[in-house]
Amino acid sequence: MNPVPTQVSRRSFLRSVGVSGGAGALFATMGALGLAPTAAQATPAYRAPRPSDFTLTGRSARKVVILGGGIAGLTTAYELGKAGYDCTILEARDRTGGRNFTVRGGTEQTDLDGNTQRARFSNGTYLNAGPARIAQWMVTLDYCRELGVPVEVFTNQNASAFIYNEQSGMTPGNAVRYRTAKADVYGYVSELLAKATDQGALDTALSADDKSRLLSFLASFGAIGNKASGYAYTGTEHRGFTSDPGAGNDAGTILGSVPSLSDVFSSNVGKYFSFEFGYDQAMLMFQPVGGMDQIPQALTRAIGAHRIELGAAVTGVTDGPNGVQVTYTQRGKVRRISADYCVAAMPPHLMARVPHNLGADVTAALGSFPVTPVGKIGLEYRSRWWETDYKIFGGITETDMDLQHIWYPSYGHLGERGLIVGYYNTGSAANVYSALSPADREARAVAQGVKIHGDKYRTELATSFSIAWHRTPYLEGGWTSPPYTSPGYQLLLRPSGRVYFAGDWLSHAVAWQHGAFVSARATVTALHQRVMAG
Amino acid sequence: MNPVPTQVSRRSFLRSVGVSGGAGALFATMGALGLAPTAAQATPAYRAPRPSDFTLTGRSARKVVILGGGIAGLTTAYELGKAGYDCTILEARDRTGGRNFTVRGGTEQTDLDGNTQRARFSNGTYLNAGPARIAQWMVTLDYCRELGVPVEVFTNQNASAFIYNEQSGMTPGNAVRYRTAKADVYGYVSELLAKATDQGALDTALSADDKSRLLSFLASFGAIGNKASGYAYTGTEHRGFTSDPGAGNDAGTILGSVPSLSDVFSSNVGKYFSFEFGYDQAMLMFQPVGGMDQIPQALTRAIGAHRIELGAAVTGVTDGPNGVQVTYTQRGKVRRISADYCVAAMPPHLMARVPHNLGADVTAALGSFPVTPVGKIGLEYRSRWWETDYKIFGGITETDMDLQHIWYPSYGHLGERGLIVGYYNTGSAANVYSALSPADREARAVAQGVKIHGDKYRTELATSFSIAWHRTPYLEGGWTSPPYTSPGYQLLLRPSGRVYFAGDWLSHAVAWQHGAFVSARATVTALHQRVMAG
């Protein structure tokens, strides 16, 4: 993690609210500053509860009520169920998965502002409105393996995708391909460092061998000229071709008009390059075949639909010496459920509003963590013009417009229709979009995309569906970012009586399903240990 | 393309024999030196012959005999067939596709040294023994679209894959992940350039704005410290984690022990980094679902199997004023075929041995192009230990051992078994392996792989199949690299009487199917224009 703020919107936003989307880096930084717990508290290898834990000890599994059927809640039921716990999930929405939500033709949703959308996507087209990518190291993939969910590559990076920085002076139609931007930045960086090295400016830091090896690296990395040419960067095939290499004497035409060093750095294209180095974002990344909701669907099947109450909005939690009572409404009726334990796997800021007897500290902690606004739109097109016209088969175009990111689809290559994520934005940019009607969101996203891709971005559009997570009932946020050292965070890591908490917001992988999985595992482990000790 | 030789084996080998595998770069260099034809000779947009070309003009389609059923030969028949040409392909092997060859369980092959192998791969496991990846810009993808061949991502790059340079002092078990190598190299490069910039060493090249923007880029790119810390690189989460971020207070543990600048550059890891910038190698790349041979199979179906003579080895070509006669042997019998035109789409060095009356210049030219030895081995494992133990889901590990490259599979993720390409090597390294028996090739590849992955690389192995293209009948080489400015190359771009030539070796995309496709298109265009003019 770069201790100097970058200008990439999501990452800088996350940092501004006190957490890195990536892999606990801020925590590590805080550790270096003496602000964090002194030693890394690594989770021991996870061991799922087993039926034999009970049969061998004479103890019996208990009844557990789980508030929320997102990934954390589902995983809690799934893991406890392995040992025979009697789990019931109360889920306020009409489907499990929480923010793991795949929109297909027919999906209907009404937001808190009264906007109702019904997706008219064609058969086989979908939008992963929430989580959409999985890094190789994440336990999410272990669950895909265990549950039999097939995966395919998520295209998080593409040399053929574009960068469009209009705040740095780029004009419509003049977006730059990643490959070109990299070639120019790396070329000039190499030229500058080679010159400085050769002139002896770094002799105190470099041995003769170091210098020789460094110059050799820069020649390859930056595709620069030799010493006689002053190590000049003058372009390279890495920039791409205006006419591709062909038959006979057609060597193709390398993209020319290399901009000056000043123009390259003032275009600010380099600020996106470190994204692909992130531990959580580096390729290769993956997605379930057919939609991210294959994961909650598989979990739901494994748990058993009879253990899940849909449309069940929690209205009260009462912890007692012998158990927990939860009240909820379902189809207009007030219902009540008793259990030995409760796991609250709802968004913390919503749990804070549920009447309970866990104490004011718990309420305050639950309501204290910053919530990030997040939006996405899926634009279905009648043709895959980005493949035929631009030779872009997936990946992400970065912009400094408030759409922030455009995602080309990672599935359906070479097909007839396809779905582009027309914006994926956070913070104030997400608020700008969510303040609009769905039709106006589409219009704004298309008007911005046209600057990169021209009129087809408008004329080929078939239909769209947008989501504003912060305006979505029973979620009301993209993700919640706890200050890890706060007393409130530490409080919620422990059970309040017989009530436990779980969710990605109780992990160092906020906004990732990995965080929900590992938090659920930690809660399951703690609860099971207590039962076994009791 | 970098004008300074890099140390990556395949690329430097290609350069040493006079051609870049990538996109005509050498040609461009030669152009700059005044050695090449003065202007780029871009191929006009391809227009396939149509039936209406004949019906509207009163001309009739002709009979064409095509020598070789590889991609160039198949494409020639496919494209001419669109207008009703009567094409016959003579293919010496028992299958079409040429070097586009997918090995599955039951595939049998005997090489020129008498080694017979029969693949014992399990169901669903395959090895793309020849071409295995497709860049987004290549017409290969257009053919996949036209022919209805589904594609998926080929994983040409993975931050989790390894680099192992034993010639630079790395020892078994101490391979470095790409993500770690990049973090350290980019970190020190950024530190050095930031220092030089800050000290004014580059003030003649940089304005104050340039300096400020460059420092901002380096901070993000190299994850270095600020000015007060001397812009020091001291590690970053980009290096990876020894313990992944988890629940609660488990921030994970960033991989530590950052090596010194001298150690990083002497490890020579950076020489591999520019590979991913290549116009022909940059992600995203693709492969057909189920094996590369889905392309020749689809072409074969489109052409019609009745137009293809298998086991037909050409023994003579006689060009005459009114047609071409071709003799061949098939199932022990000498056969003869007459046609209006002939397209020779065989490897040139093999065509050079076929008796013909096209002249000594043609023979000399055909036999004059350097041929590259190329080898590959597919190692099928009983478990996908690279996924479970190393969290590697595809991509390439680079080494300076003579196995050169290890490829993790781009298909079958999360499954039970899987196939690793245990070596993909060229030049002298390929010769070292091809001199061994198949069993000894396996043993050598495994012994080298164990240095990176430990004993499982041996103990989990189920079976293997290796290919040495330079020792494969009717092919006898990985690819053939013409000097583009040679009179011989120019001669073979033109027909010799009624005999045309086609193949990737007549393009600026040698060793790529793209080259075979565009060459075939060029030949089809020339032949059809002649027929239409005649």
Automatic annotation (TrEMBL), chains A, B:
Gene3D superfamilies: 1.20.1440.240, 3.90.660.10, FAD/NAD(P)-binding domain. Pfam families: Amino_oxidase. Residues 71-526 form the Amine oxidase domain. This is Flavin monoamine oxidase family protein.
